[in-house]
Amino acid sequence: MKKLYILLTIIVAAFTSCEEYLDRNPLDSPSDETFLQNESELEMAVTGCYNSLWYHPVDNLPFMVTLECASDNGWDRNGSALQSLGKGVTNSDNSYTGGFWSSFYRGIGRCNYVIEKGASLANKMDQAKYNRLMAEARFLRAYYYSVINELFGGVPLVTKPIEISESQIPRSTKEQVTDFIITELDEASKYLLDKTDAKTKGKVTKGTALALKSRIALYNGRWDVAAKAAQDVMDLKLYSLYNNYGDLFLYKGQNAAEIIWTVQYQKGTATTSMTRCFYSRMALGHSNKIPVQSLVDSYEITDGLAIDKSPLFDPAKPFANRDPRLGFTVALPQSLFINYIFDTNKDSLKTWDYSTNPPKRITNTEATHAYATFSGYLWRKYADIADKDDRDNCEIDFILFRYAEVLLNYAEAKIEANQIDQSVYDAINAVRTRPSVNMPPITTGKTQAEMRSIIRKERKYELSGEGFRLFDIRRWKIADQVMTGDLLGRVPNGYLANAPAIDSNGSPNYSNVTNRSKMRVIEVRLFDKDKDYLWPIPRLETEVNKALEQNPKY
Amino acid sequence: MKLYSNTITNLKLRASWGQLGNQNIGLYPYASFVNIGGSNYLFGDLVTTGASLNEMANSKIKWETTEASDIGLDLSLWSKLTVTADYYYRKTNDILLRLDVPQMIGLTAPYQNAGVVENKGWELSVNYHNNIGDFTYDITANLSDVKNKIVDMKGINKTGLQVNLEGNPMSSLYGYQAVGYFKDAEDVAHSAKQFGTVAPGDIKYQDMNGDSIINNLDQKVLGSVIPRYTYSLNVDLGYKGFDFSMFIQGVGEANGYLYGQGIMPFNMGGTVQEQHKDHWTPDNTDAKFPRFAFNEINNEQNSSFWMKDASYLRLKNIQLGYSLPKSVLQKVSIQNLRIYVSGQNLFTFDKFWDGYDVEAPVSDGGWYPQLKIYSVGLDVKF
Questions:
Q1: CATH of domain A39-192+534-544
Q2: How high is the ipTM of this complex?
């Protein structure tokens, strides 16, 4: 009998303890409930918010640089969702546009978690540090919202962690989201770092918040706010234009005082494949994200005139005497690019290899490779020769904000507000006359219309290849002109016989070019002005959130 | 009973039922945990540890279970003919699926026990072996079939070339129904609007919902990639020192699909294959391939045009050998000496794309095909 009791006790004990014993939580991950209890946890969670900057929608490229392919400056050769987007044949299942939605909402979710749950630390840690970390999270949330708000045009404004049951949220208007972003930036900029040093590079600063404010205000027609924010950045006296435009986007320019904020990269942690995508075939790149002919023809001659106006333009030497930013932005035919004289000319069967001294005459596969750049041009920005042996591990920090953009934001806002004073000329001229660019200054006395044309062209020359163009052609409402019809590359075995007509926005029209029919048609683009000014809300998102309204004609 | 004992040498009826659990459901999916170190970032040159909440939790998660029932028959007649037949039904419940939740929550959807998939199938195997004097033979034939059906996916509606839709087999091919080529400009003008710049000679798709625009609402299940009626035949013959064996296998009903560089001309602006010479032109309207359209996407949509009948009959293996008589070998103290010739994958009868292995997976053709192998051998045992 006694034995039986012992046995029963064991059995009962075994069965009662069993459940709890097996329900274990991982020892290396705290639960949602117990996290964010101290300073170091807040720091980790804010770092997690920054992590969403490493969003690489295609081919391991920074998201901003991929946007160039959805504009009239560039093209993606990959049969990808991005290519369909640029071509104007996309739908609401497009994985490229859908990726922006999900990735930035993921970043926003992380920020919301920090902002909501971190509040309990307000009086439990160093006040200044608490304020700064919370301000960084608020800035990042505003930044992520700014990207999707511009691209999708008004998005649901989620400002705290939500459950599935709370997720039937309609879109706010683009105006409402812009208001939110600007208010948040005003609040955050009070507490952000003034400047970064070698240890804090990559952190958001006051200058970053003001630069974003000027950008978003400009994008949304709030001229006074945009000009004021840009002026505030100038008044910080922390930033100045870098003297070597070409180097700014290479390893050499990484610590330039022009750079306001970058996405950070380092081998072993996070890198990009810009090298792989931008390099020539000779240099073992894929040449699949490329600039096109219309960008090349936009750039002025060194006398400040367009190629169809300047007496200095020679169709036989189309790249001579051009705004030097053309050659710094684009790898041009017959220029030295990553050790080789680059040229896709079909008759150019031999080329020079400069990796040896003296240079060698070698076979030019660029001329025969089926997948050499279709336009005959390549991006030179961010294609550094230092990466030639490790083409999938580029660690150049990608610039999200730089001083030249702020100056141009300032000028454009003042022009649109019709407050064209000397400061506007100074801002534009600082950018175009900097050493290494040395273009002739814009002389005073221009009308608003003339200045509008000048600033729009200047943004194209200065900012191409960095992801700004899509936003610019949308807000200027010129996308339906420049994104329609034949997307052109070079004449495969020659140059244009004469200059195309360049319009007030710097966009070429090739109808007067006598050998137009010889130009390579890369693709035929479509653009529906009632539809393609906005990206589609992802279809699945509209199915699980019935409150969400799709953009027109998707 | 004795009456039949020489005829029916073995008879067995089988029936079984079982339930199997799959505990491979990931670690700790039942609670929300903050991931530390999975969302790091760089400040200066220093990697800084980041922490983030990435997934939603499901506190009610449990194992997937599969219930299997089987009835079978084993029969032997005259110790020479063996027949094995089976019918089975398998149903997998509580399959873990990530049901879509709004992405603006910022977290990955949790796994939920939601899907139900069933498999119904039968298998038949017949073997006969006997000899006529010195001539021995052994023949085995197999035939089987399985019907796979998704019973419940909780309405998950993913798009892509292969989809899991309720009422259809897993990974079904999904796309537009091609209805030939556009005949002329008038045909293009009077048909539903398709993709990009469309011209005569492009593939025309069926407008399923009749709204005069071809978009994702016009896609449908085109076919299953799970083979039906798989069969094989194995023959072994022997006569004195000679031996011969042959193995044939085949599939009665299947679909194959190639896309991308594998089959589409000028894909991604690339190049063409020899077989693309037979492309649509106004003088060649019944061509094998559509009009040459450089960098156009209309013809590259997922459609029944690129789907092919992947049923086949293949001589997998054939071998003829001769073993020298032991009496001869004993003199040179060799135990066994056999010479043979054999071949693998010698013949295949199929209707698939030229130049591709009919057993190719749904792909852009970027896979290593099966080889045709001829060999001559000598086996010597001392």
A1: 1.25.40.390
A2: 0.91
